[in-house]
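Final report, section 2: Outcomes. Of the targets proposed, Tyrosine-type recombinase/integrase is the one most frequently requested by collaborating groups, and we therefore present its record in full.
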Amino acid sequence: MFINEFKDWLLEDGRSKETLRSYEATLKDLISWYEETVGDEFDPREISSKDLQDYRSFLETVRKQKPTTVNKKVAALKTYWTFLVETDRVQTDPTRKVKMKSISTLHVAPRWLTRREQARLIDVMEMEKKDETPSHKWKRLRDLAMAQMMLQAGLRIAEVAALNLDDLDMKHPRDKTVIVRQGKGGKFRPIPMNKDLANALNSWLEVRGESKDGDEAVFLSERKTRITDRGIRKALDKYFRMADIDNASPHCLRHTFAKNVLDLGGEKQLTYVKFLLGHENINTTQRYLTPSEKELRRATESISSER
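The predicted structure is given below as tokens.
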């Protein structure tokens, strides 16, 4: 199956650890499905286009996964067979006949938070209880700074986890900057900090304390080691529940950042968002122009004769 070799090949190609985990999970899922369905041991040399089309159909009809999710898994498998062909482990690529699902942009608008939802979320995170313990305050200030890093600077969860102290340039009163050195695809990008982010970071850094083994991570777990992607999700998920915000996740904060910048208007806003988010293709950024379901509903309700 060459999973470890595939991961090494991806690393050499500059893929992120998050991509490695995602691709490995997809490959293992395919192997499990194949062996349970066909009854044979998985061998990439024996896999046909029909097998992969059946797997895709299984994801769509049985698991009822969204087209975007299915496409990500198909893309992972295409990359896997590209690796096999390039390293002479197989002679043919069965994924060539497996097409990506065509998706209308109306169905892929990212989930972002409304202004009211943003205010509720930050209010919950900033709320200091009368009997708040030092450890609770430590976590709350950390969580607020992590959330603001995504909401005010548009970082991905993995980028927040990867930040080191020397990635924060906070020497200048007005020109504070966060530097993303390990962006998607290994891309580097500096992002100006606004006052909301700078204030949240200052409050966190005052209580951060020393890390275990001198780790330079900006954000620490309770064990004083670098917090993981999963740790960030787990830490922030509870605040969405506390703020009574449905169908949202920490990644929505990055989407919200993009939406907030675009809503400022102006011809150059889309270009600004492209650079700030680290997108290589402007088409990726344009999906933030796609109206949400609430916005479409508001548009149709606005022309109704009944109010």
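The chain has a mean pLDDT of 87.
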